[in-house]
Amino acid sequence: MFGDLDDLYQDIILDYSRNPRNFRKIESPPARVVEGHNPLCGDELTLYLLMDGDVVRDVAFEGAGCAISKASASAMTTAVKGKTRSEALKVLENFHDMVTSGNAEVFEDDKLAAFSGVHKFPARVKCAMLGWRALESSLSSTDDESGAGVSVEKKTITTE
User: How many whole angstroms separate alpha carbon 44 and alpha carbon 62?
Assistant: First the structure.
């Protein structure tokens, strides 16, 4: 049992939870905003995404939740910043595959691979995926074809 908990709460995950990266609101220029909620454990976050054409120029989040949810959103922001929309969606797909299967071979980055132990705790997969699902929703937004994030309505998602 303790080995499983060690897998879930690795030092990297605890660091990302205690010292979240990109934990802030993007005010200017207006960013795409997606609110996410996990009713199973109460995790809530707001994701801010600023696109420059097809490239993620900036991404940040605010919110409260469990260590897994906060750490995953934090790691996600550092993993996708500077990537194209399709590259960011591929990282999301790989992350989802990893947290549901435990196969971390697709990630050379230890910071994302640290979440591979989540697959042992199926109820925590939704926690780990909350920020990523908000990112997916924001990247799929067609409200702003310029990609700059201007005049995009706030969206809300719920993981169930």
Answer: 9
Its pTM stands at 0.86
Count of domains in the chain?
1
Residue 121: is it exposed, middle or buried by C-beta count within 10 angstroms (0-12/13-18/19+)?
Answer: middle
- Residues 17/74, Cβ–Cβ less than 8 Å: yes
Which residues span the domain enclosing 142?
A: 2-158
pLDDT, residue 85, reads 97
Could you give the percent of the chain with pLDDT greater than 70? 83
How many CB atoms within 10 Å of residue 32? Answer: 28
> Could you tell me the CATH number of the domain that includes residue 92?
3.90.1010.10
